[in-house]
Design brief:
The complex is a heterodimer.
Chain A lengths: L14 H10 L6 H13 L3 E5 L5 H12 L3 E5 L6 H4 L1 E3 L1 H14 L4 H8 L5 E3 L1 H6 L8 E5 L6 H13 L1 E4 L3 E4 L5 E6 L7 H5 L2 E5 L4 H11 L5 H16 L8 H13 L7 H7 L7 H7 L2 H17 L1
Parallel strand pairs in A: 1-8, 1-9, 2-5, 5-8
Antiparallel strand pairs in A: 3-4, 6-7
Helix pairs in contact in A: 1-2, 10-11, 10-12, 11-15
Chain B lengths: L11 H14 L6 H14 L4 H12 L6 H13 L1 H11 L18 H8 L10 H13 L16 H13 L7 E8 L5 E2 L1 H10 L9 E7 L3 E6 L8 H13 L8 E6 L3 E3 L1 H4 L4 H11 L9 H16 L5 E5 L8 H14 L2 E6 L12 H6 L5 E4 L6 H9 L4 H7 L1
Parallel strand pairs in B: 4-5, 4-7, 7-8, 8-9
Antiparallel strand pairs in B: 1-3, 2-3, 5-6
Helix pairs in contact in B: 1-6, 2-3, 4-6, 8-16, 10-12, 13-14
The chains are: A alpha/beta, B alpha/beta.
């Protein structure tokens, strides 16, 4: 396929390398995610991550950029995102001033002015174009976040940009990335992203982590948290995910909650402190009303039983 | 086998091709380009661990979470076959480090389909068995008196179809189009379009000759139809399914994508079936997919399932919910009230169509109706239900919510 550029030398050589590379950035992942990331890096294919909110989809792009020492370029998607804010835009105001200045000094040569006006000086590059341009550190990590939030026409546009890694500007010509960027797309699945886009990517469904992995994540992310407290927190959150909730807490909520508890100088969970800080874990009033009180103490007991069984 | 495939040694490529074919037979759509990716990926990842092989193929061949289980099953059946495995190991395995262990889940639902996909000949009893499986499962998990039936619809005549298309053509939902954040040029727009003005003036050497204006673009909202198929509605179910199908297919400017759900004692997503172009095929698929035709009604529970499992996936981007039910709840009314409230808070508009109100002097006495009514944005009753045209005109006309709320 594409010949491998020089910068690829620094990419991990196998799946274990990839996982330890991410671990060095305090990103703990399972072998499944490690495999997909490795493949995406070595095949130069975009990585499409789908999953519930707060399971670490965005975080992996940050960890990857930091681990490889690349620039992270982020395109946050929203409804109504258009080419002007995703690819490039001409700086009309600056062009206008240039025309006026040229008029005032009287040195307005038509063709020279045209050359000058549509040069890269007057071009405002937005994330997609920026990602195609060569960077000092090697090809950047392009994070296209929450792609499900854009409308379908924009998706169709991404198809073109992601399969050829090029962007066409009528006045300037085609900008093609010599070294294609590392592309990561995330989606919360608030709507189905079209299969045509998914097919061009490596797909991975990011699930909630297992008990052991979540404890490891917590220890790495919140080092102040004692082993006893973190195992209690994780056991409780894992139990919560088994309840019939409108929104299950993600890993991000677990980490937030641990930070809250540490700020309150808690050394272990009690039904009162759980009820007081439940807002850090559950974000819907229905869910909080359901869990607060006696249900919280029941889950806490179950969680303690889980820990006792595990140890 | 395929000249465009990259070079590898041994039968690995052949086997992966066979594996993809098995996946396709099990209902997972895998494109040729994905197959190509898979082979490249296997070459790159190396063939040392069964677990890595599993994840490598999964990453390249599967693009939808609902296919993960099928993949899991097909993978195990396919690569477990002693002949394949022996040949594989002799040919290309330098060492087999670990067998199994990627996921210790017990074999589950998709196994049957997976097994059928691997058998070259059709399975001995090709017709009914899958249905039976569902029924048995359902009887154990739900109360004894739940009657599970599939539905065979009469075929539609060409004139019926033409009439339906016409009826849907006159349908206008009581919903305004959504303003998007994109703009279009419009002479009488409210906001000046500075970019367009500057662009225009550059063409004229910096001369600004007239004001360009713009206005927000609009788009039709998506539609989510929740349709009651319980016993009390059963006489009209064929017509209502026809209505849903026409909503999906008839040319219309009033709404975008349509998602369809049926509920009686359980909730079924019938969107895929409705998207079959042929109405008869679509109706028979819907009849087979939903297992609870003409059973009881547990509206509250069905809405609970919808809110929990589907609302975030289909109600994004300002979707409008069309709830078609008579509101006669046999379950817990308090639950119904809470769930309808949650539903009306998460969608842009909740339109309730009650097709069984056949007399003018109706007042909302039933508890279920009293629970739903305050949360519906507009309420429409259909006084006769013999044609789609009646349904259309009931939906297009002014709602009756105000009158009923006064009587509540």
């Amino acid at each position: 396929m594409r010949n491998l550029p020089l910068a690829m030398k620094h990419l991990p050589a196998n799946i274990d390398d990839t996982m330890s590379l991410l671990k060095a950035q305090n990103y703990v992942c399972g072998r499944d995610l490690g495999t997909v990331v490795f493949l995406s890096l070595s095949l130069g294919k975009p990585l499409f991550l789908e999953g519930e909110a707060g399971v670490g989809k965005t975080e992996i792009a940050k960890a990857l950029a930091a681990a490889l020492g690349r620039r992270l370029i982020r395109l946050q998607c929203y409804e109504g995102l258009d080419a002007a804010s995703a690819i490039y835009e001409w700086n009309f105001a600056a062009q206008m001033i240039a025309i006026r200045t040229a008029e005032a000094t009287g040195g307005a040569d038509r063709s020279a002015l045209q050359q000058e006006l549509f040069s890269s000086d007057f071009l405002i590059s937005r994330p997609l174009l920026e990602a195609m341009e060569p960077q000092a550190e090697g090809p950047p990590v392009l994070l296209i976040d929450e792609v499900d939030r854009t409308d379908e026409p924009f998706e169709a546009f991404l198809l073109e940009a992601l399969s050829d890694y090029q962007v066409t500007i009528p006045e300037l010509g085609t900008v093609k990335a010599d070294d294609p960027p590392i592309v990561i797309l995330t989606s919360n699945r608030t709507r189905e992203v079209h299969d045509a886009l998914k097919r061009r990517c490596l797909y991975h469904w990011v699930d909630y982590p297992s008990y052991e992995r979540e404890v490891e994540i917590l220890t790495r992310r919140v080092p102040d948290c004692t082993a006893a407290l973190s195992s209690e927190i994780v056991a409780f959150v894992q139990r919560l995910r088994g309840q019939d909730l409108f929104k299950n807490p993600g890993v991000a909520e677990t980490v937030d909650w641990a930070r809250c508890l540490i700020a309150l100088d808690a050394v272990s969970l009690s039904p009162e402190i759980v009820s007081d800080t439940l807002g850090a874990v559950l974000k819907y009033q229905d869910d909080i009303a359901k869990i607060a009180g006696s249900e919280a103490s029941r889950i806490l007991e179950d969680a303690r039983a889980d820990i006792a069984k595990a140890s | 086998m395929n000249p465009t495939l990259p070079e590898t040694h041994g039968h690995l490529v052949d086997n992966i091709v066979h594996f993809t074919r098995a996946l396709r037979k099990a209902g997972v759509a895998v494109g040729t380009s994905q197959l190509r990716n898979a082979i490249q990926a296997v070459q790159r990842a190396g063939f040392t661990k069964r677990q890595d092989f599993y994840y490598t193929l999964r990453a390249t061949l599967i693009i939808r979470p609902e296919h993960l289980e099928t993949y899991h099953q097909v993978f195990h059946l396919f690569w477990r076959d002693p002949e394949y495995l022996e040949r594989m190991m002799k040919m290309m395995l330098p060492l087999v480090q670990s067998m199994g262990g990627e996921e210790d889940r017990p074999p589950k639902t998709a196994q049957r389909r997976a097994a059928e996909a691997l058998a070259d000949h059709p399975s001995p009893e090709p017709q009914a068995p899958e249905r039976q499986e569902v029924e048995i499962d359902a009887q154990f998990s739900w109360s004894q008196n739940e009657a599970l039936r599939t539905m065979d619809f009469e075929q539609l005549s060409a004139s019926e179809i033409a009439e339906a298309t016409k009826a849907i053509g006159t349908l206008s939902l009581p919903v305004k189009p959504l303003k998007t954040r994109r703009h279009r040029a419009w002479t009488h727009g409210r906001t000046p379009d500075v970019r367009a003005m500057l662009r225009r003036s550059l063409r004229k050497g910096g001369e600004i000759d007239r004001m360009s204006r713009k206005t927000p673009r609009t788009r039709a909202p998506n539609l989510v139809a929740l349709c009651d198929i319980s016993g009390s509605m059963s006489v009209y179910s064929r017509m209502m399914m026809h209505f849903l199908h026409a909503l999906v297919w008839a040319p219309n400017p009033g709404w975008g994508r349509v998602h369809g759900f049926t509920f009686g004692t359980r909730l079924t997503n019938v969107t895929r079936a409705l998207h079959l172009k042929d109405i008869d095929l679509a109706l028979s698929a819907v009849g087979q997919e939903a297992p609870d035709w003409q059973g009881g009604t547990r509206i509250g529970e069905a809405l609970h399932r919808f809110n929990r499992d589907w609302s975030r996936r289909v109600l994004g981007q300002g979707a409008v919910v069309l709830l078609i039910t008579d509101g006669l709840e046999r379950g817990d009314v308090a639950l119904l009230q809470a769930e309808v409230q949650r539903l009306s808070l998460s969608c842009r508009k909740l339109i309730w169509l009650n097709p069984l109100l056949r007399w003018e002097g109706f007042s909302p006495k039933a508890a279920g109706i009293q629970a739903i009514l305050p949360h519906a944005d507009s309420f429409h009753a259909c006084h006769s239900l013999d044609t789609l045209a009646d349904l259309s005109s009931a939906l297009s006309g002014p709602g009756e919510k105000d009158r009923l709320m006064r009587e509540l």
